[in-house]
Amino acid sequence: MPKIIYETHDGQRIEANAAVGTSVMQAAKAAGIDGIVAECGGSAMCATCHCYVDEAFLDKLPEVGVVESEMLDCAASERKTTSRLSCQIKMTEDLDGLVVRLPETQV
Ligand code: FES
To answer: pLDDT digit string (tens) for 20-34?
Structure first.
């Protein structure tokens, strides 16, 4: 099962297993990671699941969609070139070892 490494804003690294097809947000919630709020439950309507994807994995992800991009503009923490909504990233075997950094705040 692919693994995700979440790096919290204060530098903690938390590893979680995520079945293929599970979103990075769902895996974070299942692992009890506080830095992902996910108010809308994964509908790309809240931006409280914002994360920064490690640059080594950016090419492995689908393009940012129009709705995702609009929501990222509304995120509570600074939008960067590595910003994604974690609810829009579905795990694949290819993403094993994915590193995502959590922003300072989600609300
Ligand atoms: Fe709301 Fe991702 S959970 S945008």
So the answer is: 999 999 999 999 999
